[in-house]
Amino acid sequence: xxxxxxxxxxxxxxxxxxxxxxxxxxxxxxxxxxxxxxxxxxxxxxxxxxxxxxxxxxxxxxxxxxxxxxxxxxxxxxxxxxxxxxxxxxxxxxxxxxxxxxxxxxxxxxxxxxxxxxxxxxxxxxxxxxxxxxxxxxxxxxxxxxxxxxxxxxxxxxxxxxxxxxxxxxxxxxxxxxxxxxxxxxxxxxxxxxxxxxxxxxxxxxxxxxxxxxxxxxxxxxxxxxxxxxxxxxxxxxxxxxxxxxxxxxxxxxxxxxxxxxxxxxxxxxxxxxxxxxxxxxxxxxxxxxxxxxxxxxxxxxxxxxxxxxxxxxxxxxxxxxxxxxxxxxxxxxxxxxxxxxxxxxxxxxxxxxxxxxxxxxxxxxxxxxxxxxxxxxxxxxxxxxxxxxxxxxxxxxxxxxxxxxxxxxxxxxxxxxxxxxxxxxxxxxxxxxxxxxxxxxxxxxxxxxxxxxxxxxxxxxxxxxxxxxxxxxxxxxxxxxxxxxxxxxxxxxxxxxxxxxxxxxxxxxxxxxxxxxxxxxxxxxxxxxxxxxxxxxxxxxxxxxxxxxxxxxxx
Amino acid sequence: xxxxxxxxxxxxxxxxxxxxxxxxxxxxxxxxxxxxxxxxxxxxxxxxxxxxxxxxxxxxxxxxxxxxxxxxxxxxxxxxxxxxxxxxxxxxxxxxxxxxxxxxxxxxxxxxxxxxxxxxxxxxxxxxxxxxxxxxxxxxxxxxxxxxxxxxxxxxxxxxxxxxxxxxxxxxxxxxxxxxxxxxxxxxxxxxxxxxxxxxxxxxxxxxxxxxxxxxxxxxxxxxxxxxxxxxxxxxxxxxxxxxxxxxxxxxxxxxxxxxxxxxxxxxxxxxxxxxxxxxxxxxxxxxxxxxxxxxxxxxxxxxxxxxxxxxxxxxxxxxxxxxxxxxxxxxxxxxxxxxxxxxxxxxxxxxxxxxxxxxxxxxxxxxxxxxxxxxxxxxxxxxxxxxxxxxxxxxxxxxxxxxxxxxxxxxxxxxxxxxxxxxxxxxxxxxxxxxxxxxxxxxxxxxxxxxxxxxxxxxxxxxxxxxxxxxxxxxxxxxxxxxxxxxxxxxxxxxxxxxxxxxxxxxxxxxxxxxxxxxxxxxxxxxxxxxxxxxxxxxxxxxxxxxxxxxxxxx
Lengths: 556, 556
What we know:
Two copies of one chain form a homodimer. Chain A is of the alpha/beta class. Chain A has helices at residues 10-14, 29-34, 40-58, 68-73, 87-97, 121-132, 144-161, 165-171, 186-201, 211-214, 216-223, 238-246, 267-279, 302-312, 401-436, 461-466, 471-491, 524-544, 547-550; strands at 180-183, 227-233, 254-257, 282-290, 315-319, 344-348, 360-364, 440-442, 450-455, 497-501, 510-516. The first copy, chain A, has two domains: 57-118 and 412-556, Aspartate Aminotransferase, domain 1; 134-399, Type I PLP-dependent aspartate aminotransferase-like (Major domain) (Aspartate Aminotransferase, domain 2, 3-Layer(aba) Sandwich), CATH 3.40.640.10. Chains A and B meet through α1, α2, α3, α4 and α5 of A and α1, α2, α3, α4 and α5 of B.
């Protein structure tokens, strides 16, 4: 055992260095100045940045009306300059060429996507996160921030699963437990959840090293299965398509079942699909429920889907990226009945947690579930360590958990409840206004705070009211609403997005306007002004393009 | 074609709403205050945050000496409070309980990981990124920031591939082209590259819908292959193990070939491995070269690996997360000979681009290569749009590209060259000091700015010098260096990391200290003080734990 290892002495092993004895030369003044903390330069830049942000924020509307294509044409040489630009010159160019033409996602008239005004502390904390520049992937580069991140995840776990104080105490800081994983957003959260589901389904067993080790093809062969699938409603977020592609299941491995007339998963149809998959020798890895569909804000019947997942022996994942924070609202929480039965839940920070872009989370009911994806490295995240990088898609990352931890404390459940309730009330204000205006048609009664509607040209209103719209009429409606939405965005006054709904009864597919009412600064006046603008824009579109020209000709 | 669609009139279709006519109620003063832009509250918090950051920065050393376990025990109730905490109270608690015990990754004495002091503009811009809160996944939530992101990627593309100005003009802003993808870090950049490689290798062909659609098992069956593998040296970053697991290849699908005595890939051995895989009916999807290994900073012979990839008909990916910015240094650029032959290159922002945590990129030589992973959604990132979310692992994300765009302009190639050259010079200062001190053994001559060495107790120095260390001696060396490194971190004065090297000739495996010399604030005095502390710590460890106690007994 005490065998000699022929370890050569250093001098002989390495030889002499192939470079002269080095000297640590001081940096040039320019570079040294850049790396000085809290200098006058830094204060000056801070003030300039604040002036720019204040000016952009004070503007009405959602941004400039310079067309995107014009901006793209103006762009630079795409070459890193040899010599540094003076900071003032750079900032001035950045402001005039770029920031002036950013989108004011915080504007009360920006009602189109899940980006909204932020609480003021988010801006201060962003500076703090960068000033600290921690890397919570390992405790050596984060220490107390690792603990804070685990605490923030435990708080989310409690909000979603409501386990006992003893459960929280036992798992919040235990390195063997994973109550959740911070991700860069909802997409990687969904990916993490399905990765865990796949690896847990194909865990090591006698004669098989597990999918993690041997790969998916070997897993299917070992289990005698033809394929593995994830089942969700047709309103599933496109991140699930990414996830099944990434995980080697192929997009055919995402089995989408038509939603019902209000955009909710249909458990009977899903059960038939699940049974059909199993009859064909295909494994159902996961059933995914959606708490807040991206297109309509609808919420799946989670309790029934939990039953289905149990029936299929599958992982039950809930994509609550949008709707998860409804747990904070006593009024609307009942929509989430069954959520606690989920094996994993995706939450997205920049949506209804009112955090800045760049943070999401996946929360696991079972604190040991994420062991299925554990990885180690020799220099960090060693086995048994509290290093957070052991169980995550991502590696090094910022301490964005500070934003989450702070917002949970500075808003509290009552603050979030107020925001959720107000957003849903605003959606109803918009739905009511849409019903009240003959120019518009409400397509789905909003469940939460997303509203789907469309503009109907005067000449089509009688047929729309009588239910006698033709397929050609449908194409005209699509074309008008597409133009309307694109032009409204380009003008920079107010904004809703658009999507194509295909789950509506009696409409195969329709382009619809999609309003997201999450910004606490949005008032009834903003909503009315946005609809007024749409009516005016539509009138002008129809003036320039009389309806007949929008009817497709018989031969294309 | 003009068939009637039985579209029912809205009132009948939706019925009356199941809620009373809503009112948009104003927010409570507490919530309204939180969402006010640029208030006195915000200014006060900004100032408090700046005071904290300045105080933490002014401390000597790398952080507090309170043990991690003590901090973990002090943590909270893991429950979201019902009522918001006053901001001042929250910040005070955060400061005392968390921030005071963060790690000062910007300290000149923090020489252990790839996190360093940042240029001052990073802190100002972090506030700007959050104040704008753009989402570059789609132009509707970013507009000019989409263009900026594409420009920043084009600048990196030019730095790495040096294509003509006409090439840059043609592709920088063309939505069909993808010069690169911004990711949250190097891990997702590597994942993106291998995802592209896998999907391009198993593209749709007659009788096969492609791996993207049909999945990996079907792809292998269609091509009559037993398995698909990625070949790299044994010093590959652990993100490659994550990637092959995620992609369904299994960790056995990562074929690691022993590196040479200086930590570089061995092309002859790799060629034998590749040929063996192909002989066994296994597809080599990608050959991965490493430009800057995480453990030793060594650089693979990229030109030879490019030949190998061509020989294997495989995608050639270079993980240049650490070493990519060497392209900016005329002195050290020759190490990257062959880099331009890579199909894809990973760059990590927080490493030698001196950006804050949270941004990486993968750059593609062929601007059409990323089409292999394109995804769409009905409500955004529609086919043909300039939306950046079409070709990426991640979905919604922050406009971190501002940091990249700014740093490339504010440092320039000369600024980066100075930083790279100074880092490598510092590594040589440390290597020289290690050679000069009998207490230490230099294990690898540093190629770039990472130094591997270890402490050798006095009683073992003669055997170490004579090359007669036993296996038991090796275990003692491992134990002493492990303790030394852990204690140095815990004391909070200075810091290097540690790893286990297994590619050294004549040493099966050795725990070594790993210093990363990237911080421009680090001087020779900091390096000497760090080594002095290690010698003192080692002496105290040996006092408390005399060597015999570290020798493993015959029976464990």
